[in-house]
Amino acid sequence: MDAVVFSEEQREELHKVEAQIRRRVAIGAHVSERKLVDELVRVGLSEQLVRRALAFMASQVRVWAEAGDAQWKPEPEKHSLV
After folding, report:
1. C-alpha distance from residue 38 to each of 12, 29, 33, 74 (Å)
2. Can you tell me the distance from the alpha carbon of 13 to that of 44, in angstroms, rounded to the nearest whole number?
3. Residue 66 class from Cβ within 10 Å (0-12 exposed, 13-18 middle, 19+ buried)?
4. What CATH number is given to the structural domain containing 50?
5. How far apart are CA 28 and CA 8, in angstroms?
6. Any idea what DSSP says for residue 44?
7. Residue 68 domain-assigned?
8. Which helix (H) or strand (E) holds 41?
9. Rounded Cα–Cα distance for residues 11 and 6 (Å)
10. What is the pLDDT of residue 79?
11. How far is CA 76 from the centre of its chain?
12. How many domains does the chain have?
């Protein structure tokens, strides 16, 4: 899989959207992905940016997306190879 490179501005926007997602979805809670996207679009975020943030969070195992639901998961423990 190719790595995605974000500009500093894009990274800041993604972090803001990720923070909004974390505020709206409690750890372990199940939320309709469509409902979550609609809610964030209503507060002024772009749908494309919200979906990109969800995809990024899923790739980092922060959000589990399955069958149209989004579930917030705590950060996995980081293991050192040293």
Report:
1. 21, 18, 9, 23
2. 12
3. exposed
4. 1.10.10
5. 30
6. T
7. yes
8. helix 33-42
9. 6
10. 40
11. 15
12. 1
pLDDT computed for residue 82 by the predictor: 35
Answer whether residue 1 is part of any domain: no
pLDDT score for 17: 92
pLDDT per residue, tens digit, the chain (82 aa), is 455 677 888 889 888 998 998 888 887 788 888 999 999 999 999 999 999 888 887 777 655 655 556 665 555 544 433 3
Instruction: Please tell me what DSSP assigns to residue 26.
Output: -
Record the pTM.
Answer: 0.65
Host H or E run for residue 9:
helix 8-24
20: part of which helix (H) or strand (E)? helix 8-24
In the numeric block, the tokens 């589990």 are attached to 64
DSSP tally for the chain: helices H, then strands E: 3, 3
Domain containing residue 51: 8-72
